[in-house]
Amino acid sequence: MVADVRGAPEGSIFVLHQCAHNPTGVDPTEEEWGVLADTFAEKRHIIFFDSAYQGYASGNLDRDAFAARPLRLQGPLLSLRTVLREEPRPLQRARGRAVCLHGHPEERDAVKSQWEMLVRAFYSNPPAFGARVAHIVLTDPELRAQWQQELDHMSGRIKKMRALVRKHLEETYKTPGTWSHITKQIGMFSFLGLSKEECAYCQEHNVFITLTGRANMAGLTEETAELLAKTIDGAVRKYRAGTKL
């Protein structure tokens, strides 16, 4: 990734997930974010962060916001989209905000004028009720604390499902291969490392993951976590080990 950043023309625009990368579930470490920040600054790149899953990665809002901090200190033009889409979520409507951090007044004025034109063209006057609900939750200490507890619970549950899938693969079914990546990844989604044929096998057995191997870990239960592992085991033994099922 660092090589790609260095190889891009100066002033390129990079769109990054701040945490819980979708679709891979693979996030840079804090040290790696620091290296990336230095590289972005060297090439004067423009960074756009999509912060759709803040709180879903670790369960901690502050910890999941780390990625933008070293970039902010380095001084590249930095945009951040914060989305309150996943929850709180009244009527399935997304609420969020766009923030641009800059170092010069002329940059501020240029960005502001462009955003004003986009806002006018796309929605002009969006519904306010979703933002008002979010405001009530985030400004009331008791409601905010409850919301943060729920975030921690939800992220913890996803981690538990990851651990269950890995345990069944390694211990229950002794599936050939290495499955530690399932628990090393973070957030709602996981790249399972399956081939297209193996993914198609899973779909044929009513386990619906994408043909690229992305699975929604947030949608699993204790029962379906084992079903996923069992089906992966069947796919791997058929296409890798040559075992006749």
TrEMBL record:
Swiss-Prot/TrEMBL keywords: Aminotransferase, Pyridoxal phosphate, Transferase
UniProt KW Transport keyword: no
Cross-referenced Gene3D superfamilies: Aspartate Aminotransferase, domain 1, Type I PLP-dependent aspartate aminotransferase-like (Major domain)
Residue ranges occupied by any Aminotransferase class I/classII large domain in the UniProt entry: 3-68, 109-232
GO BP term, pick one: amino acid metabolic process
Pfam family, one: Aminotran_1_2
Cofactor(s) listed: pyridoxal 5'-phosphate
Domain of life: Eukaryota
Presence of the UniProt keyword Hydrolase in the record: no
GO molecular function: L-aspartate:2-oxoglutarate aminotransferase activity; pyridoxal phosphate binding
Family statement drawn from the similarity comment of this UniProt entry: Belongs to the class-I pyridoxal-phosphate-dependent aminotransferase family.
Subunit details: Homodimer.
UniProt protein name: Aspartate aminotransferase
UniProt organism field: Strigomonas culicis
Taxonomic path: Eukaryota, Discoba, Euglenozoa, Kinetoplastea, Metakinetoplastina
